[in-house]
Protein: DUF4287 domain-containing protein
Amino acid sequence: MGAPTAPRRQTMSDQALIEATGADWRTWLGLLDERDAAKLDHAAIARLLVAEFELDGWWAQSITIGYEQERGLREPGQRPDGTFSASASKTVPVAIGAAFEQLADPEEQAGWLGDLELTQRSAAPPKSIRFDASDGTRVQANLVAKGEAKTAVQVQVERLGSPEEVTAAKAAWKARLDRLAERLAP
Structure:
């Protein structure tokens, strides 16, 4: 395979990696190649990094993802199960409770969602809510109060099939959240 190089799709700098783990990308790629990590699944690579190199879980996951992307085992944004996820966010001009109601109430959703239908799976009012969407995706919304009259709404869309679907989902959810903000504007 030749000498390992720094990943083309770095998720973090060599400097950050060295400061946190004591090694740069080139070193981590080489160590994982020596252990035939390309033949392992995501969880096994992360476990190897934790067990053999005593990395904490966050750094093991980050190095695993960088390795998988560099070795062509995973595309950017791709999850271990092969699907992709996308996100969009918007700050809306209402308190967190009112923003949650707009997200949770099917009658209110009709005013800003367009043709997408959401079926609630679970909720932790007023901070988060999960849905199954009529397009086959799963949607999670997280809300964070930004003072008394503003709320940041962050939407994560899962079960997308390709990078092209990621691009389309980001655009669609950006437009939906823009409509939500317009609807809530004083």
